[in-house]
Structure formats: C-alpha cells, structure tokens
Specification:
The chain is an alpha/beta fold and 289 residues long. Helices cover 34% and strands 9% of the residues. The protein folds into two domains: 127 residues, no CATH class; 133 residues, no CATH class. The chain starts with 9 loop residues before the first helix and ends in a 27-residue tail after the last helix. The N terminus is likely disordered. It binds iron/sulfur cluster (2 copies).
Length: 289
C-alpha cells in the first residue's frame, strides 16, 4: 500500500480527526475557503474523495491508511477550481505533489491551504511552498520510500543495483501485456495534467489506442518518459490500476537515475528545474553543445 498518514492507536485517530474536522469547520465558517477536499467512506470499505461545502458535512470526513488516493489531482480540475478556494486534507504524498506542481508553475499559493497532522497529532495549516517544504520531512509517513513496494520474488530484476536490462525488459513487457488501456493511472496522477495527452491524439496518431503489446509498450514508455524526474512516488497510479500493474516502480526507477545523474528529487522543493526540460553547458552529453 502506498504511504499514508499512519496512526498507532484508534483513540489517537479519533482525537486527531476531530481536530482536523474542527479546523476545517472554522475555515468554512469564516469563508476562508469554500470547499474542503478530503476522504470519506465509500462502498465495500473503499474510500472515496469527499468534497464538503457545508460544515455539517464534515462528520463524514475520515483519514486512515486506506486514504491513498492523491487529492492533488483535483486541484488541477476546472470544475473543482470553480468551487472556490479549497482546504485539502494533506498526506505527505499530496504535499510532495504540490511542491512539484509549484516547481512546474502549475500551482499557485492562493489556490488552497493544506491541513496535515504532525506526529503529535497537531493540525498544521500550510499555505506556502516554503512551509510545506519545511515540515514535509517531519510528518508521519514522509519518507517516500514505501509506496507500493513489490515483493522481491515478484520482480528480482528490479532489485537495487540490478544491471540486467534484458530481465527488466522481460518483466515490464509481461506486466504491460495486461494493460487494458483504461487510463485510470493517468486520471489518478497529479503530474499527468496535459490538456491533450499524446495518446488521445489521432492526427497524427502517435500511439495505437487498442490494448495490444506494441501499443501498450509505447504508451507506458511514453508516460514513463513524460514523468521522468517528476514522479513523487505517491503510488496512486498503481492503486488505481485494475490490472494490478506496479506502475510507480518504473517511474521510481527513472527517479532514482535522475537523482544519481542530476541530483534532483521531485517533490522536495518548489524551486527545482526538472531534469528533462533544462540543459546546461556543462552537461556531459556533447550533442547539447
Ligand atoms: S506516476 Fe504514479 S506514483 Fe508517480 S506521481 Fe503519478 S500517480 Fe504518483
Ligand atoms: S490503469 Fe492499468 S490497465 Fe489502465 S491504462 Fe493504466 S496501466 Fe493500463
């Protein structure tokens, strides 16, 4: 399961939740925000996104280990923006997403405030990228290392330091065969915000739309390259995939390479240049000069 805010005692959850609800109520009552974006119980013990516009609706707000959907994805949607300023119940993956979106000029500080719980159960209200970057590392579940960790026997070719390219390619080819091209991964990802995705273009058609081996491979390689150095390892894509493909691992593999080569890690600062959109005269590759 992707990382979430973690709590060790049920009582602590209740108390923390009441503090979160109370602060959310105050923000709505004061007109500081017009909508609270969080989580509520759905059907079959599933959790669903929750949009509260009235203080009395906040009783339904929850936050527990099942809340892995990355709510940052809603801040990009025009229909959500139209509701007014939002307060968002924040987990560390969401806050990493906000920093990365801000680094890409796709988030302005006036758009939302974020309500997070610190390790003592206090409610933190965060509005600026500097505030988010300042507290992110100290929040429960903020390491960013444990999103959808695979079992070692499932993908030995991906173990740390593996240089077996053929084994890696065979693994991903097999995984991508199962893709049904529903694009739930794209819909769940806060970094997939292009108004027209290249896979939806038909003039020219860059990528075949049918779910077959070559088209699936092209889709996933294209998406991985578009996310290279931008994925914040929230795990929302893997959680959303009905075929159970561990998508965030391919993005994290690239993220690790980019950190090694360029010293950059997505979701750590709003002042990052992301590796595939900038160049420097001191880059090692000579073609760029
Ligand atoms: S690619 Fe997956 S893990 Fe990475 S930011 Fe998007 S949803 Fe999260
Ligand atoms: S969510 Fe899974 S099945 Fe759907 S397009 Fe993405 S990888 Fe394919």
């Amino acid at each position: 399961m992707a990382e979430t805010v973690r709590r060790t005692s049920g009582q602590t959850v209740v108390n923390d939740m009441e503090a979160l609800r109370q602060r959310a109520r105050e923000l709505l009552d004061a007109g500081t925000v017009q909508v609270i974006i969080g989580y509520a119980n759905g059907s079959n013990r599933r959790v669903r996104p929750f949009f509260a516009r009235r203080p009395e609706d906040l009783e339904r707000l929850i936050l527990d280990d099942r809340c892995v959907l990355n709510l940052a994805v809603y801040l990009r949607k025009p229909e959500v923006k139209a509701l007014g300023k939002a307060a968002v119940i924040a987990t560390p993956p969401l806050l990493r997403s906000i920093l990365q979106l801000a680094a890409e000029n796709h988030y302005q500080e006036s758009e939302a405030v974020f309500l997070a719980l610190d390790s003592a159960g206090n409610v933190l209200e965060l509005s600026s990228a500097e505030q988010i970057a300042g507290v992110l590392g100290s929040l429960p579940g903020s390491t960013g290392q444990d999103a959808c960790v695979p079992s070692a026997d499932r993908m030995p070719a991906l173990s740390a330091g593996s240089t077996d390219r053929q084994a890696r390619f065979a693994f991903w080819k097999q995984e991508f065969e199962r893709c049904i091209r529903c694009y739930a991964c794209r819909a769940a990802c806060p970094m997939c915000y292009c108004e027209q995705c290249l896979v939806d273009s038909n003039q020219p058609q860059w990528i075949p739309v049918a779910a077959h081996s070559i088209g699936n491979l092209e889709w996933h390689i294209s998406r991985a390259m578009h996310l290279a150095g931008r994925c914040v390892n929230c795990g929302a894509c893997s959680e959303a995939c009905p075929a159970g493909i561990p998508l965030n691992l391919v993005n994290q593999f690239l993220a690790d390479r980019i950190q090694q080569e360029f010293g950059q890690k997505a979701g750590t600062s709003a002042k990052l240049d992301y590796a595939l959109s900038v160049f420097s005269g001191s880059d090692r590759e000579t073609f760029i000069k």
